[in-house]
Amino acid sequence: MKKVITIIFIAMLFCACGMSSARSEVENYLKKYKTLNSEVLVDLEKVVNNENLTNSDKDKYRDILKKQYKDLQYEILDEEYDGDNSYVTVKITVYDLYKAQKYANNYLANHSEEFTGINGNYDELKFASYKLEQMKDMTERVDYTITFKVTKEKDKYVVSQPTENDLMKLHGIYNYEVD
């Protein structure tokens, strides 16, 4: 009898190892950020290259985002199932880059003369460099809640593309003052 139970238990373990769950797929999704998976790095390049920055500031921004991703902390709070759709609620903790950007914008409002170019006009690149320095130096962290939609397709769970707001939370730039 013990032998039969052991064999059944081992068989169940092998079956369970091959199965995914909504929760495990969300964890895999977030681990891709933490490990700087190649898919995440491709998306990171799109974000960086979409900004009007000097090459050295693009490098700085890239490093800021990599640090944000590697230091991401998360905790699964809840799972809800609705047919083939699941909703996994996660608390994430990231660097508060929104606060750094807000500080930089306030500084600009009060010290605009520091961000003028040779011609006396506002120098967007000079300010961008200053703002990136504030982001790089940010050590304060903020918690956000994200609910990931996960769809069961055949026998596999697939995490849906997060909303723009949820991506801003992952980057730490979500404006939490409007909530």
Low-confidence stretches: 1-17
Strand numbers in spatial order across the main sheet: 1-2-3-4
CATH class: Alpha Beta
Strand-pairing-aware structural class: alpha+beta
Distance between termini? 59 Å
Percent strand equals 15-25%
How would you sum up the global shape? elongated
Largest sheet: 4 strands, antiparallel
Calculate Rg over CA atoms. 22 Å
Proper CATH architecture: Roll
Give an overview in words.
- The protein contains 7 helices and 4 strands.
- Strand 1 and strand 2 (about 85-95) form a beta hairpin.
- The protein has a single domain, classed as Nuclear Transport Factor 2, Chain: A (Roll), CATH 3.10.450.
- The chain has helices at about 1-20, 20-35, 40-50, 55-70, 95-110, 125-135, 165-170, and strands at about 75-80, 85-95, 140-155, 155-160.
- Helix 3 (about 40-50) packs across helix 4 and helix 5 crosses helix 6 (about 125-135).
- With about 180 residues, it is α+β, with helices and mostly antiparallel strands.
- A 4-stranded antiparallel sheet has the order 1-2-3-4.
- The model is unreliable at about 1-15 (pLDDT under 50).
